[in-house]
Specification:
By secondary structure, this protein is mainly α. It has 11 helices and 10 strands. The N terminus is likely disordered.
């Protein structure tokens, strides 16, 4: 039987852990863990986990150098933008956790060679800039390269052009205008998008902080809004500038009001019509839920507001038990219907939920029972 370790029970995940044998048997039940989960106490020794990660990195390094914009620099498979961002962020996390900088050159060079898409605000450019900006903040957090955070701030300024402003309703002479910012949250310039908003609409929660699906559109994208909230929160944490914190708060409130299913406590991949608040039919999204959890962990840190960390914990618990994307034994089934070695959207997105749960686990606001539950869930995977 292989020697393995039980997860530590204290808040400090680096404390000594108990050695056990016969890894096919769960010896110690863990409070709050569903009994049907597969081997929640099982975990590989740290040195074996590190060896596995290094093998995965070596495999992914066989692919050509890819720009974060999703454009392949040479012949070879085209890695999409969110896949590249996920890969680079995983490299950053590996260095942060191990205290090394083995991936620094790969991450920094790839990010600095990537292109900024400032050619208008079509959906594909919006998405590419969001992924690129988040990877920039993660890279700066680990390696403190000044160009990375400056690039992320520049991208944020581009993205705010399609951000619904704080004062997005103006009522004058019987007409109402739907406003978005131009040049940033703090800018005095605005451009109106004429709509026929119902007067009752003014009593609804604000849409400020939502990101439009397209220029001059009245559709607000949950995908863009969740990622913009995460980018804003990271920039607020790194720069301490108040405009980023305000933007993150506004986006989080918009998500909570319109994109978070309050019954399932999961984020939906959908578009919200700002005129009548009708929702484009969408499914619960494991990856958007993971991104929102990560964003909430940062938002709680920069605001000191425990209501955000409480929401983070509630969503995290719902996400790791959601029947929509788990088998009965607790295994995450996103992407399980195809070839796991293929470079597909679902395979690339599978790890984003776990990344969000890792952020919740590392949050100073998280209590030991939540950390134990998350650690057990990751053991199951």
């Amino acid at each position: 039987a292989q020697s393995t370790t039980l997860p530590a029970t204290s808040e400090d995940s680096t404390t000594a852990v108990q050695e056990v044998h016969n890894s096919d048997v769960d010896i110690t039940p863990i409070a709050g863990v569903p009994p049907e989960w597969r081997k929640p106490s099982f975990i590989l020794p740290r040195n074996e986990l590190r060896e596995l990660v290094l093998k995965l990195i070596d495999y992914l390094n066989l692919f050509p150098v890819i720009e974060i914009s999703g454009v392949d620099a040479r012949d070879g498979p085209n890695i999409l933008s969110h896949q590249c961002e996920s890969f680079l962020t995983a490299l950053v996390l590996q260095d942060q956790i191990t205290g090394e900088d083995n991936n620094k050159q790969r991450v920094v060079e790839t990010l600095l060679k990537s292109r900024k898409n400032s050619r208008g605000h079509k959906p594909e450019y919006m998405q590419l800039n969001l992924f690129r900006g988040i990877a920039m903040t993660q890279g700066y957090r680990a390696y403190e390269h000044p160009r990375l955070v400056n690039e992320a701030m520049s991208l944020w300024n581009i993205l705010t052009v399609d951000n619904v402003s704080r004062n997005h309703f103006e009522v004058a002479t019987g007409s109402e205008n739907y406003w978005v910012t131009s040049g940033g949250i703090s800018s005095q310039e605005t451009r109106p998008v004429t709509t026929k908003l119902h007067m009752s609409r003014l009593n609804e929660p604000s849409l400020a902080g939502g990101i439009l699906l397209e220029p001059l559109s009245v559709q607000i994208s949950s995908k863009y809004t969740v990622y913009f909230m995460l980018l804003s929160a990271h920039l607020a944490d790194l720069t301490k500038h108040v405009e980023y914190k305000e933007a993150a708060i506004l986006s989080a409130k918009c998500i909570k009001s319109y994109m978070l299913d309050t019954t399932a406590m999961l984020v939906k991949d959908c578009d919200i019509n700002a005129v009548d608040l009708s929702e484009k039919t969408g499914n619960f999204s494991s990856w958007l839920t993971g991104v929102f959890i990560e964003g909430l962990s940062v938002l709680a840190l920069i605001t000191g507001d425990t209501s955000w960390s409480d929401l983070m914990a509630e969503i995290a618990i719902s996400a790791l038990r959601a029947p929509q994307w788990h088998a009965r034994n607790g295994i995450l089934t996103v992407g399980s219907d195809g070839d796991p070695t293929e470079n597909t959207d679902t395979n690339a997105l599978k790890g984003i939920l776990i990344r969000g749960l890792l952020a919740a686990y590392r949050s100073p606001f998280s209590k030991p029972p939540l950390r134990t539950l998350i650690r057990s869930y990751i053991n199951v995977q």
